[in-house]
Task: structure prediction
Amino acid sequence: MCQPRPMGIFPVILCGGAGVRLWPSSRPSRPKQFIPLTGRYSLFQQAALRMAPLATGANSRLLVVGANDLYETIVAQLRDVGVDATIILEPVPRNSAPAMVAAAEWTRRLDPDGINIFAASDHEIPNAEAFQVAAKAAAVEAANGRIVNLGVTPTGPSQAYGYIRAETRDRLSPIASFVEKPNAETAELYLAQGYLWNTGVLVTRASILADEAEAGAPGIAGAVRAALPQGTDVTTVVLSSPFGTAPAIAIDHAVMERTDRASVLRVDFDWADLGAWNSVAAAGNGAVGLAVVEESPGTYVRAPEGVVVAVLGVPDTAVIVETDAVLVCALDRAQDVKTVVEKVRALSPAHLDFPKGAKRGIKSGAQLFAQWMRLSVLPLWATLGQSREGAFAQLLSASGHPVPVPRRARVQARQIYVFAEAGRSGWAGAWDQAVNRGFDFLQSHYLRPDGLLRTRLTPNAEPLDDTAMVYDQAFLMLAAAKAKAAGLEGPFEARATAVRDALLNWPSVEGGLVENGDDAYQSNCHMHLFEAAQAWEAVGDDPVWVHFSGRILDLARTRFIDRDAGCLLEHFNSDWSFAGDRGHRVVSPGHQFEWAWLLAHYGRRRGDDDAIADARRLYQFGLRGICSDRGVAVDEIGDDGEVRLETARLWPQTERLKAALVLAELATGVERANLIADAAAALEGLMSYVTPTGLWWDTLTGSGEFVDEPASASTLYHIMAACRQTQASAPVLGFDQGDLSL
Result:
């Protein structure tokens, strides 16, 4: 006999709402649901812990709907309480109905009969078990086609909540009507007549909600479906621009006030919508933070760390202190705080949100970085970013489609490096397949008959430019070293050794290899040879690699570094003298950091204090390229330290982070603390470029706007290297390396 299929329940937390009445603690960058108002956890975290256990069914899991700008906060707060969820991100706010339809349509893809339990993220429900029992009972009715609203038996005549009039006194009843927040006299009448508080918690089949919403607000379902990405194998769902065309309407108006399916389930657990300071005061313990409250009964005080608040003889008052704003308000006027906020908007708009200088710490930033890599970046680039034949995409559009452009050898090699390092970092995805297929494609399509890489193929993988660039050969050797270090079997060492031996016979001047192309005498290609040689030193015992890296170090010390200016230059004359006049030579802050990182590792491995000293000098010079307004390293400065090019690409931010971290490992005391602070600032800058989908913006203009262009695969090499260094530096940052594993 066939057993009935278990109900698939998909709980949904809605993170909308600005919480204006809880200013100055609740503001756009940290709305009320993400503040710990009544205990250790924020209201959102409490909701997550309460809702997640309700998920049942093969494909079921908690869904969270919130704004794009709140992604990092949502991820961090879920991680802190150990809850997994699929996050649905809205590009613009469109009220509750479109948000709920987005969750419902996503649920339908996973389970056509799936049931959603919708709840706001800012409600206080102390008895989670009682809530779960009620929600499950409502789910049974929802499976039969009803849209069930949980209605709480009022404890008093509140003017802060909407009410529901049930048709009967039964525990489950059809809804007769919804009424808005009443005045005091009407609230007393509602209480006497048995009305229920409207919690806004809805339980319904996803398909029914979506169809009913479309009937009440035509166009809403089509806009949402057009905004949803293809596929379901993701943990972050980024709604695209069509979402902004959905009608901006509340679910009450779109569905609940017009449907004939609405029922109310009468519940008796404690419930509060903490929408104003009087409700927070009623739920709290009188004071949060360091406070002295004397002869002030009923007064609620909230003070930030480092601030003491003293109150004397002021009863029934809210005293809310933030570092940049203070609110003093009679609790019986708490619902009117919104009018005060409007006055603030006119007087000082900057105080509507927190100061922009407030940054996350290095520990939370590092954990978020690792999670972004693990959940978004690597799954995306291992699938949409690589063909079945093994060719890596050069660029991915915002929709995840490869852009057909010529294929560069260095990108193919860099992506092999990325996935080999992913494997070494503990990523559980198919990194080994990505590496092996990528290396096979590299050998079958990019190798010339002489065993060196040609530099470019057509988009269809036909030879386009047969030139062998030193730069490309360096990345073949680096990729092969990392594949071997990851424990893969293959021709990695033989191929790298053959390329190295060819480079040892490459045209050179005084030890410096002459690159093909217009920029023949440059330091950049040597930097990557230095990196590849060190990588092979770490995995093998061939002394030629040791000699090779030592040769490049000598070049850096004697030719590339301008001792007078204190920086490492980019371009040289044919005798390796500095090209250009003093004060007009180009310096890349990103390359100062990248060389500093390499020299620091070399110095530590070889016990070479001079190499470490050079690393510190280059790092300090690179810091002259930090734009204080934008918090990022610019693309070019001069050898006098003056900014030459104000654009700021993503990759220099990764190199700044790497250098700060490795030098912090080599430092102690105040110097280490300063370098860790530098690393935190670098990580903050880096993360400002990334998107939740595993893509990024590559270029920030001087005016602070990102250039709208596809994400470059070439940048992922830098991002992965920064991720690996962050993982290696975990003990210096105060936690285990395993905490940052991928």
Q: What stands out?
A: The two ends are 45 Å apart (CA to CA). The chain has a mean pLDDT of 92.
